[in-house]
Amino acid sequence: MDLQELRITASLAYLDLEEEEFEKLQMAVEQMLQYFSKMMEVDIEGLSPTTHALVHENRTRPDQVLPFEDTESLLENAPETEDRFIVIPNIL
Amino acid sequence: MSSLSSWIGLLTDPKTCDSYIHYVEGLEPQIGAFIQFDPRIGLKGSLPEGPFKGVPFAVKDILAVKGFRLTCGSRILEGFVSPYTATAVERLQRAGAVVVGKTNMDEFGMGSSTDTSFYKRTNNPWDTERVAGGSSGGSAAAVASGMVPFALGSDTGGSVRQPAAFCGIYGLKPTYGVVSRYGLVAYASSLDVVGICAASVEITEEVFSLIRGKDERDQTSVDEAGTTGIEGSHGKGFNRMVQRIGVVSGNLGLDPGVERAYRKTQEVLRSLGYEVRPIELSMLEYYAPVYYTIATAEASANLARYTGIRYGYRPEYAENPEELVRKARSEGFGEEVKLRILLGTYVLRSGFQDQYYQRAQRIRTAIRKDFDRVFEEVDVILSPVFPTQAFKHGVEGLDPFQQKVADRFTTAANLAGIPALSFPAGLEEGLPVGFQLMAPVFREELLFQVARKFAEEVPLLKAPSNTSPWS
Predict the structure, then answer these.
(1) Which end of chain B is more exposed for a tag (fewer CB within 10 A), N or C?
(2) CA separation for the pair B390, B384 (Å, rounded)
(3) Parent domain of B444
(4) How near does any CA of chain B get to the CA of A13, in Å?
């Protein structure tokens, strides 16, 4: 993968990388993609994809609201709050 | 043989509780098993009556336990305190067991050495210059050093079995979906399972029987009796007693010590009366590439939730929300996690999906079919866990790419969804070697059966650092 492709991929993943990191990771990514290319040897004609290892039907549950009592503990994990609001930088 | 009996009531008697804490705190600086060790959290209030009353256990820091931190070994979750408890943990707590702490791990489960943890280094209880394996290295080291009789871990591609083998203990990766993943932080959802590190087959079995079972809070959870639409390797004729053991053969690229132990293990199994026959897994060379394609793709989606907004690491300063997210992720994730996110994002990009992710999922079907074929002929499969024994920390060990290639034996069970048990098979040059048994889906008891018989012949050895009076 060339550096430009890697830059696009990093940006899609919301990762800002230093130049040094780009160089190091480019080599590692390249090595892994090379490894993945081994999969081209397999004839996949007639094989359906596996999504769940065992179950092959869609499973749904009722669309129901379930209360979570301890909402304070959720807010306590927020890095910055004001009353019950989570603070983020200005949008505009 | 190690059993739970000496651990029962340990934490309910203030005297033994004190000497227990003293033991762990004395050994921990040498081992580094825990990111957080605090038995007091779990001892608040009265403990429920149950078969595990007062038994300490440890939980990999990727499973939620209310009141404990939940970091996944990552800086991006520094300071996060879990507001709720995972189902598997809760079921053990209901039996009276007490969480004493959260164990160290490779960041988000990504690694085979626990060295990618942001927090600390975990050492092998047999030789502290060496790694305990990974990603559940802290859990395996805590058991092997006698700090706990068992610990929960997670196994996406071998993360319970490989550290268990490195540390000379048992490591169970159950059938996919049999143990609820509610409260397990997601890495690769179609592969992740909650697993068990334990000091004996008996303890592994007891813990497994408590934590298994369908859970409405996990959409992927199954149980054999109550789930329709299940396909897959059930094994021929549902043999209750194992007779035939298929041994993965061919040029496996094992280190000489592991190779020697592999041959000895087969001899022991033969002497126990099993019919041991060589088998070939025709897809073996594709396991690791298929696994890493699927695992990184799913990881890139699962790890998109870490933004630094509602919880976790937040950068000092950001001009706007987008910069906040970019900085939080770039500063919060370590190098291995970034690599896997990049790979996963790339293989899912439009134009590349067919070539990578789709192809991997279709080969995964071929891998499952290959196991169906093998289980027509044998009851269980014996295979290496890892081509080497515990390697050294740093440059003398295996580099990250070599570690990934070495996952070729363990990733099979995750791709096929089948259960696998890593068991200790003696020492080579003073270090433990472990092998794994694999069985058809839902047939965990076949694994316990063989491992129990094997342990009568080749008893478990204690790590030199393990002076625990209870284990």
Answers:
(1) N
(2) 14
(3) 14-225+419-457
(4) 7
Domain boundaries, chain A: 3-41
Task: Kindly state whether A24 is in contact with chain B, defined as any CB-CB distance less than 8 angstroms.
Answer: yes
Residue A24 distance to chain B (closest CA, Å): 10
Give this complex's ipTM.
0.95
Q: Is position B109 within any domain? A: yes
Contact call for B333 and A29, based on CB within 8 A: no
Residues of B labelled as active-site residues: 60, 135, 159
* Assigned token pair, B56: 């300490």
B50-84 residue pLDDT tens: 999 999 999 999 999 999 999 999 999 999 999 99
Contacts of B333 in chain A (CB under 8 A): 15
Tens digit of pLDDT for each residue in B269-282?
999 999 999 999 99
Comparing CA positions, the residue from B25, B62, B50, B77 lying closest to residue B136 is: B62
pLDDT at B203: 98
Instruction: Examine residue B350 and say whether the peptide bond preceding it is cis (omega within 30 degrees of 0).
Output: no
User: How many CB atoms neighbour CB B15 within 10 A?
Assistant: 7
- Measured in angstroms, the CA of A55 and the nearest CA of chain B are apart by 5
B224 burial via Cβ count (<10 Å: 0-12, 13-18, 19+): middle
For residue B250, tell me if it sits in a domain. no
Interface test with B, best of A20, A21, A47, A50 (most B CBs within 10 A): A50
∠ at Cα B386 (B123, B468), nearest 5°? Answer: 35
Place of tokens 């943890």: B117
Q: Which residues of A touch B314 (CB under 8 A)?
A: 79-80
**A 63-82: CB under 8 A from B:** 68, 70, 73-74, 76-80
Residues of A in contact with B222 (CB under 8 A): 54-55
Is the distance from CB of B68 to CB of B84 less than 8 angstroms?
Answer: no
- Structural domain contains residue B127: yes
A87 shares contact with chain B (CB less than 8 Å):
no
pLDDT in tens, B80-129: 999 999 999 999 999 999 999 999 999 999 999 999 999 999 999 999 99
B249 falls within a domain: no
Query: pLDDT tens, B214-233?
Result: 998 998 898 776 555 555 54
**What is the Cα–Cα distance from A54 to B184, expressed in whole angstroms?**
20
Choose among B159, B201, B155: nearest CA to B179.
B155
The CATH number of the domain holding residue B215 is 3.90.1300.10
How many domains are contained in chain B?
Answer: 1
With an 8 Å Cβ cutoff, are A44 and B293 in contact? no
